[in-house]
Design a protein that fits this description.
The chain is mainly α. Helices cover about 35% and strands about 5% of the residues. The chain has helices spanning about 10-25, 30-40, 55-70, 75-80, 95-100; strands at about 110-115, 125, 130-135. Strands 1-2-3 form a 3-stranded antiparallel β-sheet, with no helix packed on it. Strand 2 and strand 3 form a beta hairpin. The chain is elongated.
C-alpha cells in the first residue's frame, strides 16, 4: 500500500526554484521567461492573437515574472534572471507605453533595470520584452519623484510614469 507522508509540504518558492533549475540546466540558462512567453502565446485563447491584444499577453507575462521575482530570494533572481531584486526597478519604455492606456501605474510591474547599475548609466534592460533601451538621466519634473531615468522618445519618467515635457 502506498501512502503520502502527512508531513510532506511543498512550498511554492521551492516549486518555482525546481522549475527554474530545470530550465536553467536542461534547456538554457535564463530561459524560463522566453519559454513562459511562448507558452502564453500558444494557448488556445491566443488563436485570436493580434497586435491589439499583444499588450494583454505581455502584461500577463509581466505580472507572472513580477510574482516569481517577489517570491524568490535575491540570489535566485540573480541566478535565473540576472535581475537584482535589491536595485531600483523602472517601467520599460516599450511595455509601459502599451500598458498605460488601459491600466493604472500601480498595476504595471516595473521590470527594467539600469545596466550597469551606476549613476551615469543610460541604458535599461527589460525582462519582459528582452530589450535594452537608451534613457536620459534628467531629473523628473513631478514634485514627489526623485527619479532621473527618462524615456527620450516621449519624456516619460520611468520611475513614476509622469510626463516630462522637454524643450
Amino acid at each position: 500500500m502506498h501512502t503520502v507522508d502527512p508531513e510532506l509540504y511543498i512550498k511554492t518558492e521551492n516549486l518555482f526554484v525546481e522549475i527554474l533549475e530545470i530550465c536553467h540546466y536542461l534547456i538554457e540558462p535564463n530561459s524560463w521567461i522566453k519559454i513562459r512567453g511562448q507558452f502564453i502565446q500558444n494557448e488556445p485563447e491566443s488563436v485570436l492573437y493580434s497586435p491589439e491584444t499583444r499588450e494583454l499577453f505581455n502584461l500577463r507575462l509581466a505580472l507572472e515574472i513580477n510574482l516569481v521575482i517577489d517570491l524568490l530570494t535575491p540570489s535566485a533572481n540573480n541566478k535565473y534572471f540576472n535581475f537584482n531584486k535589491k536595485t531600483r526597478r523602472y517601467f520599460c519604455p516599450s511595455c509601459y507605453s502599451g500598458f498605460r492606456e488601459n491600466y493604472e501605474d500601480e498595476q504595471i510591474p516595473r521590470l527594467a533595470q539600469l545596466i550597469p547599475n551606476e549613476p551615469t548609466s543610460n541604458t535599461i534592460y527589460c525582462l519582459v520584452c528582452n530589450e535594452s533601451y537608451e534613457v536620459l538621466r534628467e531629473d523628473c519634473t513631478a514634485e514627489d519623484c526623485l527619479g532621473n531615468v527618462i524615456d527620450p522618445d516621449d519624456g516619460t519618467c520611468l520611475t513614476c510614469g509622469s510626463d516630462n515635457f522637454r524643450d
